[in-house]
Amino acid sequence: MRSFMTRGRFALLTTVIMAGAGLVLSPGQAQEKASGARSDAKSLEKPLAAVYYGQAAAQADTQSVEGLIGQGSGDTWACASCHGDRGQGAENVPRLAGLPAGYITKQLHDYANRRRLNDNMQYVVEGLTDDQMAALGRYYAEMESPSSARPGLSGDLDRGRELALQGDWSLDVPACYSCHGSSGWGVGQAFPALAGQHPSYTYNQLASWKSGRRANSPINLMHNVAMALSEHDMRSVADYLASLPAAPGGRQAGLDTPAPGQLPPVERAASSQQGSADHE
Questions:
Q1: Cβ distance 25 to 259 under 8 Å?
Q2: Degrees (nearest 5) of the Cα angle 110, 226, 231?
Q3: Domain span at residue 46?
Q4: 73: burial class by Cβ within 10 Å (0-12, 13-18, 19+)?
Q5: Which of 25, 78, 213, 237 could form a disulfide with 208 if both were Cys (CB 3.0 to 4.6 A apart)?
Q6: Is residue 26 situated within a structural domain?
Q7: Does 269 map to a domain?
Q8: Which one has a higher pLDDT value, 47 or 119?
Q9: Whole-number pLDDT of residue 11
Q10: What letters, b where the CB count within 10 A reaches 16 and e where it falls short, cover 238-272?
Q11: What are 219-269's pLDDT values in tens digits?
């Protein structure tokens, strides 16, 4: 039964990779969906939420948040004071440079609405508007920064590579690259880059997915994956991903999402009558 559920969720996630790339809103729709004062976000916390947020970020003015990033605002400290002046992060502070704009924006909304828990981030987002969140997403998505991550958890890099490239279906664990891209550089707006991320951060997120402390995945795929991983596996895959080059900035900004008519047709098995979609 667990195998059926995990593979079913994986199939659903594969669908969203294709569907998410083709969901395009007009500028007016994007701003209506995610701009101005804090929205209740209920309609956006659907499987394709990151895609909507990515469209809003594409309309955002990054110059409006440059002061916030470098100097902070009022009682809110600068983004760069924790994430670095090039978005490179450190230790358990995540690298932001090159992550998808929609993904970053969604995480900020999730902190604001307590769907993702972190005292520091919840304090920071209290002072942000929806427009600022979208602008921050675009700013970091467009940023180019070499990786400063290095393996440091004494993980087995060969085992980490196996999990990243092939997964382990004896544990019902799909390959990381199945959703996060063949180079670990992310896919679309919903699946962030993993390559070049700090191993302590990656490990702690897997531990949070496993314990249930982090639970902002609509179909709980990451919870199910993390539940199947041992302590050794989590350290190994975190170290392996840290050894890889980081995603280049700009490619995940979501500013060139193809229109639905530009996407290749999705082939379906003869027995398939319906499809559905969702995110990480």
A1: no
A2: 125
A3: 19-147
A4: middle
A5: 213
A6: yes
A7: no
A8: 119
A9: 55
A10: bbbbbbbebbebebbbbbebeeeeeeeeeeeeeee
A11: 788 999 999 999 999 999 999 999 999 998 775 454 444 333 333 332 323
What b/e readout covers 155-191, taking b as 16+ CB neighbours within 10 angstroms?
A: bbeebbbbbbeebeeebbbbbbbbbbbeebbbbbbbb
DSSP 3-state of 52 = helix
User: Which distant-in-sequence residues (6+ apart) come within 8 Å of 92 by Cβ?
Assistant: 198, 200, 201, 204
Q: What is the pLDDT of residue 25?
A: 45
CATH code at position 106? 1.10.760.10
Interatomic CA distance for residues 87 and 137, integer angstroms: 11
Identify the bridge partners of residue 173 per DSSP, sorted by sequence position: 168
- Joined together, the tokens standing for residue 206 give 């897997």
Residue 218 lies in a domain: no
Please say whether the beta carbons of 199 and 207 come within 8 A.
Answer: no
